[in-house]
Amino acid sequence: REEESQAVLKFNQKPAAGLEYAAECGHVDASDPMDVARYLLQNKDAFDKRQIGEYLGREKEWRDGFALKVLRAYGDSLDFKAMPFDDAIRYYLSGFRLPGEAQKIDRIMEVFAARYTDQNSGVFPTADSAFILAFSIIMLNTDLHNPAIKEDRRMTIASFQRMNSGVCDGGDFPDEMLSEIFERIKAEPISLKEDDDARESAGIGKGGKTPASALSTAGLSDFFFGSHYVEQDKTRESNYQKEGDQIVRDTESMLRRRRKATKHEKAPAGSGGGISSSKKALRESMKKHASVKFVGTADSGLRDEYVTPMFDVAWGPALAVFSTAIESANGTDGVLASIATDEEMDHAVDNAYLAIEVSLNGFQLAICIASLCGNDTARDAYVRALYNFTLLGSSHLLADRHVQCVQSLLRLGRDDGELLGVTWEHIFRVLTEIYRLHQVWEGMARNERKEIKARERAARRAEKEASAQSSDGSDPDDTDEESVASSEMSNYVDVHLEEEMDKRMIDEANAMFIHDTVPLDLVDSIFQRSTSLSRRSLKDFVYQLCRVSRMEISGYGGHVGSDANDIDLTNDHYMKHHTLVSDGKHGTSHMGVGSTQPAIYSLEKLVEVTHFNMESRPRLIFADIWGTISMHLTSTALHEEAAVAMYAVDSLRQLSLQFLNREELGVFEFQRRFLKSLETIMSRSTHVSVKELLLSSVEQLISIYGFGDGTKSDSRQGTLRSGWRSVLVVLGTAGLDKNDSIALQGFKLLSDQTNQCMSVCSIEGGGDVSKQPDSLLSEYFVDLVNTLLLFISGPRQDLSSKSIDSLVRLSDVLAEGKVPLSSTRRKALASPVALSPSTRDDALDLSNDELELWWPMLLGLSQTMGDRRPDVRVKGLGTLFNIINKHFFPSSHDVSKNGDNEDNASPRHGDLQTLQLIFRGVLVPALEFEEIDGNSTSGFAPELLPPKFVHFITAPPTPDANSGEDSGHHEWINTTFEHLMDGCISICLRSLEAFDSDALVEEVLAMLNSCLLSDSGHLAVKGLRRLQQFVSKDLELKDITDDTWATVSHMLFRVLSIRGLPPSSVPEIEGATDEQKEQQKQENIETMNEFIREQRFFSNRRYIGCNAAMVIGSLLTKDNIAESMGVHWYIFLTSGLGKGIRDWERAAEIMDSKTARPNA
Predict the structure, then answer these.
(1) pLDDT at residue 1073 in the model
(2) Fewer Cβ in 10 A, N or C end of the chain?
(3) What do you get for the CA distance between the two ends of the chain, in Å?
């Protein structure tokens, strides 16, 4: 007991030290994450739950991720089966207190969502949905039970439902579920037992609405986030106090300045100290105001009752005053410069400087107040006006006041970014123009260095020429042809640059001014501070940055490849107007880039911002901004300019490398959503270079984060999880590409991964599959098969053939039981939570899982029968039947021993029921490909008729009419149908021997019946002949039951019948009126006409009926068959044949009457 007390004491001070001490005492194995998790659960009431939460939330890098393994083991030790979602959260959070860091909360709740989804698979479509709802419930809990929030501002059921709309895998959670969660959280907050006991001892009811000050005095936490809000209230109170003290000090300072100003007015006129002292005082005052941070007053009446009404009245006139002051504060311009004395000019300059500073300070204060009061119109007007005063992008020479406006905007972005909202657009446009001017300055510096070097070389050359001329006595004033040509070219360039010289000089002057006054460090700080923005402000920041980036790219006339980028660029071609002309001598622009290349400055900064926020934000918040970022990067990657598109792809590569550093649990799909844009780019890009770069990027992702071959011990290997689906889709899409190099590059990547994972399984296949490491086969077997199927359907026959071979190898690995269990299944088997015997048996039963792996492969091979290439069809069909015969039947040894000795038996992965499913879901649907094979429904096959067949009703077809076209229409039937039926009948006959059941006989008859009922005469006749062969030759008569003969007889009878045949005579209705008789007559005529209009269709059916009569006659004339079918079915077929002949005679009479009376 003393050891336990000492361990608790050490743990509460430092968890790692406490666990080490407990391990020394033998209470826990500190090297086993599962045992540490058990120890924490066992002692959760003794340990400080804040320390438990801090330990479980430790980062991945701490002790090689040991704490993260403990966290997962902790979650796997809890049982959430059949538990309501919010109750599961209560149970999960009852053992520790959530830490305050967002990343730690992210990891802890991710484990909970994964565990809950594993044990309650039918509640949420994905673990992502559970993860998002868990965060929403935490936010709901804090909103409903935080005493600092007023009742009228608390979340309602409707707002809770709106907050969770569209996050359930693209859909909505059931309203009933959200309402029940809301009511339970409202009635009973999520809190720790210690907090409940402390509230009870302090006389505070659970969930009571005690003021925040009372909580602060009692030192209690109303719930697991309570302490955070107490500190927030303290900070807010402190800020109010500081602001009040600052106002008092400013007032005292103002009074002192007024007294000093009065003394200066009494001083002699020549002293001139009043303006400078007031200027200095004003600067000090503004500096003090700038140091005061604005505090939101959303929870008090100050804003709504006083500030907002006053501001609504004052902001318009104030904007006009400030704008007028800035516009007129020129100081030395106009008539004053010519008539004023030097002293008056100094006063004018000081007044102008003061007016600008006061106005800019007013702009800053007004923008902040407008945002806090929710007056977006006023805020937008002030920011836009301030942006216009910068004169950036207007081709005007910048003065001090314009640069001051630029600096004021940048300070707003750096210090008050939380309040800017949609006006970030103007900040980013200023930043873009500043960057452009810095590039201009760098170009000027480079050109200046080049000119200095050129002058030095020219001077040295002139000295050499002068010395040479003095030695040979030539005239130094002579010029060679080269110098004359150079002079002429210089004159030519000067003439053509004359019109642009003013604009160029202004741009260069502005560039020098901006370079000296606006450092790039200030610009960079704006983007770096995006990590401190709130969730909503960050979304505005990112959206506007993407928007300005689209303006830059589209401003040069480039086409952006997504409709999501359609924006109004009426006033946004500002970058286009600053394309500087090329230097005539060097052929380069001052910007250092071509005049037609789109600007990507904002795109570069967008990538930087994404890097900054990826690690510092929880996944839930980062997912919000990633939707906007990925859309913009995807559309940019589809740009018509290959260089811009490649930059976007490379940016996605860099961001993916960073994102995949964060390990993902198997049930989540964060990686899949992150890499989804790669699929779009691969399928829609038109640049081969872009696709090559994309495949190279995918190769890098696989090499670093893939499962590997087990030879390298890299902690990053295996981090790629759900992202494999996007990677495999990219590779499969490459197989459909028109470019050979793209397809070959994609197939090589796919082949390398397939060979690698199969080699690993072959090496480790002898062991227990439940203990093998994760691999591509265990986690994404179906996705790998689907990717190979995409290559099979691709346009390259060699790759299609190799892909089929790979499927054969995969089928062998699967049949031999070398495919490891998925991580989810292994976790279910290894879970410490007690399972009932029936539940554990279900977990160990792999038959359903195996069928799920086999099915996509079998179905995909059946799809090859619809391929236009005969060789691919034949190979795919043969492979399909080989897999079925090899892996879905017991071996002969099994049959002889009745399955008693299975040690040396071939694997058996199905039974008779499985084969029936394969027939119905894989083989029978293959007949549908005949309908896709041209217009085969209108063709005859005269070669299938008897040799001396006489056409009594229809005229025989012209021997050479459309013969080539007709054979093309029947290519699938002539090349594939027989192979398909031979394979199906072979499986059927083998099942009779293996399972001693005729169940598959019925399946074959169902396939043949589909052929008989087809509108294609060719297929129907083929089916009739195959039916005749199946009954008379393939099957032994002893195996044909009476039910089978019944099925065959009804099939043949149905073929002989004529649908829609009008009756030979219309019975008269007794007592019918003349009108009723006339109506009956008209109906009979209409029936006749409808039958005649379908003459073409019935011509085809008559052709089929003739073959059916021939097949029936052949069966009835064979004594052994007649004896097998029995008297009943013999008479049934005989009478059916007679009825069919009478029906066809009746049809002939109708057609004859149509021919005799064409107007009938």
Answers:
(1) 75
(2) N
(3) 110
Q: What is d(CA 1069, CA 1031) in angstroms, rounded to the nearest whole number?
A: 48
Report DSSP state, residue 171.
Answer: B
DSSP-based three-state secondary structure for 707: coil
Mean pLDDT of the chain: 75
Two tokens, residue 888 = 């879905």
Question: How far is residue 268's CA from residue 605's CA, in Å, rounded to a whole number?
Answer: 57
Longest dimension (CA), the chain: 144
Q: Which residues pair with 171 in a beta bridge?
A: 168
* CA dist 297 → 208, 234, 287, 292, 366 (Å): 24, 14, 23, 15, 16
Quick one: tokens of 385? 């006006």
Treating both helix axes as pointing N-terminal to C-terminal, what angle do 823-830 and 837-844 enclose, rounded to 10 degrees? Answer: 150
- Percent of the chain past pLDDT 90, that is, above it, reads 20
**DSSP H helical ranges for 919-1030:** 929-932, 963-969, 971-972, 978-995, 999-1012, 1017-1029
**Distance of alpha carbon 247 from alpha carbon 253, whole angstroms:** 10
The answer to whether 420 and 413 have CB atoms below 8 angstroms apart is yes
- Class of residue 248 by CB neighbours under 10 A (exposed 0-12, middle 13-18, buried 19+): exposed
**Both structure tokens of 570:** 């009426």
Per-residue pLDDT, averaged over 5-23, amounts to 86
Q: Shortest CA distance to 1153 belongs to which of 1103, 1058, 1089?
A: 1089
Mapped onto helix, strand or coil, the DSSP state of residue 667 is: coil
Local structure of 574: helix, strand or coil: coil
**Please, are residues 725 and 673 in contact by the beta-carbon 8 Å criterion?**
no
Measured CA to CA, the distance from residue 216 to residue 207 in angstroms comes to 16
Q: Which residues pair with 168 in a beta bridge?
A: 171
How far apart (Å, rounded) are the C-alpha atoms in residues 77 and 95? 12
Residue 171 φ then ψ, to 5°:
-110, -160
Tokens found for residue 471: 């030695």
* pLDDT tens, position by position, 1103-1147: 777 888 888 888 888 888 888 888 898 898 888 888 887 877 777
Contact yes or no for 825/849 (Cβ under 8 A):
yes
Q: Which residues contact 917 (CB under 8 A, 6 or more apart)?
A: 851
User: How far, in Å, CA of 406 to CA of 413, rounded?
Assistant: 11
Question: CB burial class (10 A; 0-12, 13-18, 19+) of residue 917?
Answer: middle
Phi and psi of 465, rounded to 5°?
A: -65, -40
Q: What are phi and psi of 706, to 5 degrees?
A: -70, 180
Confidence of residue 423 (pLDDT cuts 50, 70, 90): very high
8 A C-beta contact, residue 796 and residue 743: yes
Structure tokens belonging to residue 304 = 């709504």
How far apart are alpha carbons 840 and 828 in whole angstroms?
Answer: 9
Q: What is the pLDDT of residues 154-194, one digit of tens each?
A: 888 888 888 888 777 777 888 888 888 888 888 888 877 66
**Per-residue tokens: 458:** 């020219």
Distance (Å, whole) CA 145 – CA 541: 31
Q: Of 664, 666, 670, whose CA–CA distance to 626 is shortest?
A: 670
Residue type, 272: G
Q: Which string of b and e fits 62-101 if b means at least 16 CB within 10 Å?
A: eeebbbbbbbbbbbbbbbbeebebbebbbebbebbbbbee
HEC profile for 372-414? HCCCHHHHHHHHHHHHHHCCCCCCCCCCHHHHHHHHHHHHHHH
Write down the pLDDT at residue 81: 87
- Token pair 């359907």: residue: 793
User: Measured between alpha carbons, how far is residue 632 from residues 494, 545, 561, 636 in Å?
Assistant: 42, 10, 10, 6
Q: What is d(CA 569, CA 454) in angstroms, rounded to the nearest whole number?
A: 43
Residue 1075 exposed, middle or buried by CB count within 10 Å (0-12, 13-18, 19+):
exposed
